[in-house]
């Protein structure tokens, strides 16, 4: 039987056939299909076709790209504490619509995720309300105060997938050293935001001519590179696994390259915003473009795109950060930073593909298998036995972003009215259809 | 054009009957989120001399802390149907934001470290009255460039009018990329003031200083305060200007401030004239009921 998928849950055995299989983990890019049974991938390859899968429910992909569901390593939700901005449920709907099948939520909620019970709370809420896989990151210090190390071992056992410091840097080099050294014993990943708090203190955007013209105080790139250099010395000292949450400038990329050449366990991410926007987009004080780290120069943006193409940047994140009018309808310096991104990440990332700047497999690598490997999860690949997390992608059709249609509770998108090319058509999480563009 | 209109207003202001009726029946609200003496009072006088009803609203920053956003404040005021709104705010871009949310004309009376356009206009008027022109003059803007909206507006206006603009300040008080705004940058008063026609001093904005930018007032005065010794580097007939309020003995020697070359008091007088001109120009374009 052949039909368009109009039911929420797929049949227990479903075959996606006539697809362009695109799996960065195995460098696969060819015609074929994926057979899923229950919540796992049962088989994958060129031999999966309508006439080879027996009585499985068949979905004809019409030669479109079938890829592993995207994994987003940096999502801020408002749960717990700011549910009016976003809950795990609404974030997961946004994720599904963006082809994202796994989100990692950040610990700087209210209260801060620094306790086993809170990790458990997130996992239970996600199980009961979310459409996609949710993994919490826990705080690396208690209350994110930067003083006492959190219970990294117990939190890991409870399900914390990594440890972060929210949108601030851990100022004390001594505490950072201890965190890295202690986390190493548990194989835990430390994910760090990079911003020297004293250098960045009054700044609200990238330092330079644009900030000076706008009369806004700047944040020099040195605020990021100083922290990154420090951290890399501490990785050298401790051997802890370290991931720079997002880098924003050319100079940071150079530092990462050097650290990788030295063989240090260092990786880095970049937000979709920093790959597709720059400081000039702020224009007349548009607060939806206020971010942390700030949008940098066009030269920095180009360097980051090259970093994705060369593989020096490991991961692209949405840095999804929902903010309401109360945070954004303010003078720029007083406005909240952050932008929603789950639903536009893939479309915006495809700009790099359409511009011939990054090959499709390499682009998808940073959104699937790379974050999966860093986080130690078995999704992010089209492989027998892997979770049936898939996204069917239309690479070509242009569309215009309409904030009111976003599923996220907050509409603070910097891609308001942006023209994007390509979008997810179907999103499957653990064998369940969680998004169908045709609906 | 605005400067010519200002000249007329300056004449009017020296007469006994200073009243005109360009703005009769109109309502002007002075909305000041940040304390101001001369800007607020000169807008008030300008509005009254043109026949408008003028209301002064000093919005304490505490109402912001009570949770009302600037946009909500704007919408509230807009409901009172003013014709002209004069706004000062401590945040750059706040006036722009507010102007998007109201129907009436909005005049920027200073927004953070961004701009203070009427100050630049009154400075240009003062210069033109004394020098007869602006084109070709060398103007040195000295002091706290980093925090100064006056500096930014003057750089834009004086460059447009054909002056050569220099900025003179210690590196810690220079904004990043300032040279891209079309100015020559000096970090020494002795060099920066050589042969200039205009010395424009800026107030050292101590209230905006949250981090150590200069070591002491005494050191600042020694190297960057305008005294007769440094002023001697300028042309003999150079004008000394200051947007006020002055910190005597910090950025300017008290005797220099009161010297014959100082036009600081005239700047205040021209402040009223320029603001009248701005209001008159806007009045011509206000919608008729």
Task: Please tally the helical runs of chain A, counting DSSP H or I stretches of 4 or more residues.
Answer: 14
Average pLDDT taken over every residue of chain A:
96
Radius of gyration of chain A over all CA atoms, rounded: 21 Å
The strands making up the biggest β-sheet of chain B line up spatially as 7-6-5-8-9
Q: What would you call the quaternary organization?
A: heterodimer
Low-confidence stretches of chain B: none
Overall pLDDT metric of chain B: 91
In the predicted model, the low-confidence regions of chain A spanning at least 5 consecutive residues are: 1-7
Number of helical stretches of at least 4 residues of chain B:
12
Architecture overview:
- The complex is a heterodimer of chains A (439) and B (289).
- Chain A is α/β, with parallel strands linked by helices and 439 residues long.
- Chain A is built from 14 helices and 19 strands.
- Chain A has helices spanning 88-97, 116-129, 152-158, 173-186, 197-200, 209-214, 222-238, 250-261, 272-276, 298-310, 325-328, 345-354, 360-365, 369-375, and strands at residues 13-23, 28-37, 40-45, 57-60, 65-68, 70-75, 100-105, 133-136, 138-139, 163-164, 189-192, 205-206, 218-219, 241-244, 266-271, 315-317, 390-400, 419-429, 432-436.
- In chain A, strand 14 (241-244), helix 8 (250-261) and strand 15 (266-271) form a beta-alpha-beta unit.
- The longest helix of chain A has 17 residues, at 222-238.
- Chain B has 289 residues and is of the alpha/beta class.
- Chain B contains 12 helices and 9 strands.
- In chain B, the strands form 2 sheets. In chain B, strands 7-6-5-8-9 form a 5-stranded parallel β-sheet. A 4-stranded parallel β-sheet of chain B has the order 2-1-3-4.
- The chains are: A alpha/beta (439), B alpha/beta (289).
- Chain A binds chain B through residues 201-202, 207-218, 220, 284-285, 325-326, 329-334, and chain B through 67, 69-71, 89, 91-94, 96-97, 111-115, 149, 152, 175-178, 180-181, 210-211.
